[in-house]
Write a structure and sequence with these properties.
CATH superfamily of the largest domain: P-loop containing nucleotide triphosphate hydrolases
CATH class of the largest domain: Alpha Beta
Number of helices: 9
Largest sheet: 6 strands, mixed
Radius of gyration: 18 Å
Helix content: 25-40%
Structural class: alpha/beta
């Protein structure tokens, strides 16, 4: 049995002022999986991701990325992860090539390797006509593609997507879905958070629903979405959310 891409064991995160963001979360995501991580705002999804990527330090529990401890072996583990955040945390005056190139430099890639990889990503995400424009001039859909390309520059094995299609129209969302499905078929493991249940049903094979810092339900897509009312009803039952809080229906 191969080493899991991501193994989280009894993760707990309490912030300085006493806020418990994650109570007790355990996940085991196999290599090559497309995993949906669902839950309302404040449920602990982003904090879990922050602990995986080193933005936050766990209060208790362990996180292993392909067998590497995410805290003790931070540098080696972080190289295996590509993070596509919900926010556009980039220099708005930089162009797509610069934004992706800087991230490659952060991971210690040589200039020639960065150029070859950037050329490939600009073509893959159809960004060549836009690669010299300032980021602030791009449409929402193009900005999402740039941030996704940036996450992939160092050829990570685990890709974490935090609301990757937020604010993108239906047509462009489907274009991004196609890219994500291709990346997964290439063997990359993907962890996806999204409020668009259609997106999760389309892309993910395994799903965990988190509520109040705990896993409320976990299983295959068929197990969770196969009952009456589908994934939406399962989500509402697991989280106690109101129906109008669920997007994408």
């Amino acid at each position: 049995m191969s080493t899991p891409a991501l193994k989280i064991t009894h993760l707990r995160k309490v912030y300085r002022r006493g806020t418990v963001a994650v109570e007790d979360i355990s996940l085991n995501i196999p290599q090559g999986e497309f995993f949906g991580f669902l839950g309302p705002n404040g449920a602990g999804k982003s904090t879990t991701i922050h602990c995986v990527t080193g933005i936050a330090e766990p209060t208790a529990g362990t996180i292993e990325i392909f067998g590497l401890d995410a805290v003790k072996d931070y540098r080696e583990a972080r190289r295996l992860v590509g993070l596509c955040p919900q926010e556009f945390n980039v220099d708005p005056f930089a162009n797509p090539r610069q934004i992706v190139d800087w991230m490659g430099g952060y991971f210690g890639m040589a200039a020639r390797a960065r150029k070859e990889r950037i050329d490939m990503l600009m073509e893959k995400f159809e960004l060549i006509p836009h690669q010299k424009k300032q980021f602030r001039e791009l449409s929402g859909g193009l900005k999402r593609r740039v941030v996704l390309a940036r996450a992939l520059i160092h050829d990570p094995q685990l890709i974490i997507l935090d609301e990757p299609t937020a604010g993108v129209d239906v047509e462009l969302r489907r274009v991004l879905w196609r890219y994500l499905a291709e990346i997964n078929r290439d063997g990359k493991t993907i962890l996806l958070t999204s409020h668009y249940l259609e997106e999760v049903e389309r892309l993910c094979r395994q799903i965990a629903i988190v509520s109040k810092g705990l896993i409320a339900r976990e299983g295959t897509k068929d197990e969770i979405a196969g009952g009456p009312g589908g994934l939406e009803q399962a989500y509402l039952a697991a989280t106690g959310a109101e129906a109008d809080h669920v997007a994408g229906q």
